[in-house]
Specification:
heterodimer; A: 206 residues; alpha/beta; 2 domains; globular; B: 469 residues; Aconitase, domain 3; binds iron/sulfur cluster
Chain lengths: 206, 469
Amino acid sequence: MNNQFKPPSGGFSKINGKCISLIGDDIDTDRIIPARFLKCINFDSLGQFVFDDDRKALKGDHPFDLDDNKDASILIVNCNFGCGSSREHAPQALMRWGIKAIIGESFADIFYSNCIAIGIPCFTLSKKSITIIQKHLENKDLFFEIDLFKSTASSRDLKFNLEIKKTSRKMFLSGEWDTTSKLIENNDLIEKKLNDLPYIKFNSSI
Amino acid sequence: MSQNTLFDKVWELHKVANLPGGTDQIFIGLHLIHEVTSPQAFGALKDKNLKVKFPSRTVATVDHIVPTDNQSRPFQDNLAEQMIDTLEKNCFDNKIKFFNIGSGKQGIVHVVAPELGLTQPGMTIACGDSHTSTHGAFGSIAFGIGTSQVRDILASQTIAMNKLKVRQIWCENKLSNGTYAKDLVLHIINYLGVKAGVGYAYEFAGPAISALSMEERMTICNMSIEGGARCGYINPDEKTFSYIKGKLCSPPNKNWDKAIKWWESLQSDENSIYDDVVKIDAAKVEPTVTWGITPGQSIGVNQKIPTLEEIDPNDQFIAGEAYEYMGFKPGQPIKDIPIDVCFIGSCTNGRISDLRVAAQVLKNHKIAKHIKAFVVPGSERVAKEAKEEGLDKVFMNAGFQWREPGCSMCLAMNSDKLIGNQVSASSSNRNFKGRQGSPNGRTLLMSPAMVAVAAIKGKVTDVRDFLRK
Ligand code: SF4
C-alpha cells in the first residue's frame, strides 16, 4: 500500500509499474469498497479498506495483502470489472492503495468513466492475453511499461497492444481528463442551452 | 449508429459542444444529489474556487444512511449524522432545494423525483447513483455518474460523455397472473447477461411494456444497470402524461398542452434505427428468483439451480463462485430454500403499488415464526399513502416491522443488516456478496409478492400456488 498518496495531475504518456492480478468476472464495486466505508465526507482513508470483505475472508491470502504485491500499481482483471454501484469511492480506494492503471477484459460503464475522471487509464485486452499475463504472474513478477502514445504494454519478454477509447487516450495525453475547466470554458453555450430547452420554459421553477 | 430514437433526439437536444478529446458535452436538465456521493464533489468545487452554476437545477434528498427506526437528530450513528449535516450545510450554502426528513417529501431519490413531478419526458437526468436509470420510465435519458461528474455538473450543469448505442428490447405478449415487472426485468437480465448492456442505452418497448403501470415501468428501467446498461428508457404515452399531471413540479395547467405536444414529438420514430434489437416473450416469464451473486443468476421459481455444464462457459467462473458463496447445490430446486429475513423496500420495489401487492398477499396471514421481516416505504409520501389505506396495519398484523423511509437494507448503510450467513428474500436489486451488510449474508432477489409469500411460508414459495388456494 502506498502511504504517500499524490493524486495524478496533468497529461502523461507513460506508466511504469509492477502488475498485480485479481482473477474473477463481474467484480462489483460493493466488493471493491463495501458500503460501510462510504460513511465519509472525503476519500482520504479509503485505500486501506479496498476489498475489505474479500481480504478478511482470505485471511492474508488476497492479492492485495501479499507482500509481493506491496508496490504494485498496474491492476490486471477479467470481465465486467467494477459493475454495480456508481460509487467513485471504488476507483478512489484503488488509487489510494496505489493503483495507477488497470488492464482487463472489460469494464462496467460507470466504473470506467469514474476511473477516467480521476486519472486512472483503463485498457482492454483479449481474454487470451489476460490469461497469459495472469499465468505469468502466478510464479513471476511482471513489470510493465505502458506507453499511451503507442497503446502498448511491454516488459522484458512480453508485449501487448492495448485497446483504449480514443477519447480517453487523448484526454490522458493532453491532461484533459480533469474535465471541469474544459467544460466551464463553454459558459456562453451552456447559458444558451438553458434558454433554449423547452421544458425549462414550460415548467415553473423548482 | 442509432437514428431517430428518443435517445438520439434527447441527446442531440442537450448537446452543448463537441469537446476536443472527442466526447460530447451534454447539458443535464435535472441533477439529483444525496448524502453519499455529493460531499466530496462540493469539496472539490471549493478547492477549485468554483460556484454552483445553476442551483435551481439541482435537488437534494437524504436516503442511504438514514436510520429507519429512530430518526430523531442527532442520529445515534455519528458518521451518519456528519453526512446529513454536511448535506444540509452544502445545500444551504449553495441555495439548493433539499427535501429533508419530516418535509413530507423525503425518500429514496429515485422514488421522490417522479412523485414530485420533477422527472419528465425529454429531460436529461443525472445523479451520483447507478439506479438513476429508473427515471427513464418517463422517457427521460437518465444515468448514474460518479462524484467527479457530480462536481462537473455542479460547476457547469454539463458533463463530458461518449454517446451510447441503443438496443431495443421488444417485449411481446403480456405478463401472466402472479408475475410482475420485477420478474420480467430479472428474466431479461438473465437472458442477455449482466454485461450485455455495457455501452448501450436500453429502450424497453412492446405490448408487455405498454401494459405496465408507471410504477412497474420504473421497476424495469431501475434494473437496466444490473444488465450493464447505464440508461434504460420507455417512450412516453398517455399513462406517462396522466401520472405527471398535477404533481407539485409538473408543468402548470396553462402550459400543459404545450408540454404534451413536445413530449410526444420525442418518441422514437416508427422507422428509427437501433444498434440492436432483442425480442422477449413476456408470457413465458415465471416468478423469478436469483440463486447466485449477480442479478443475472436467476431462474423460474419451479426450476433447479443450473449445474456447471448447463452454464455458458463464459459464465462458469462466476457460477462457481456463486455455488461456493451461497452454499446451494447445483441441480437443487430453488423452491423450499429456507429464508431467515424478508425485506420489502428499495428504489426497485418500495413504491405504493409494491406495498399494495405485498399487503394483498399478507392479509389475514402471519409470517413464519423464525422470520424477521420488515417493510421500508420508498418515501414519506409512500408511507403516508400506505397508512391512509391501512397497509401498515396489514403488515404489522402479519408480523412485519413497519419502518421509516430510506434505502435501509438494500445496501445496509444504516443498522439494518443481515447477520452471519442469513438468507434474505429481498425486493431490492442487488445480490452481490456482502451487499446486505454481512460479509457472508445471502440475498435472493424476487418480486414483493414473492417476498411476502416467502415470509408466510418461511421458504421460497411460488406465489401463484399460494394465490390459487
Ligand atoms: S434503494 Fe438501494 S439501490 Fe436504490 S438508491 Fe438506495 S441503496 Fe441504491
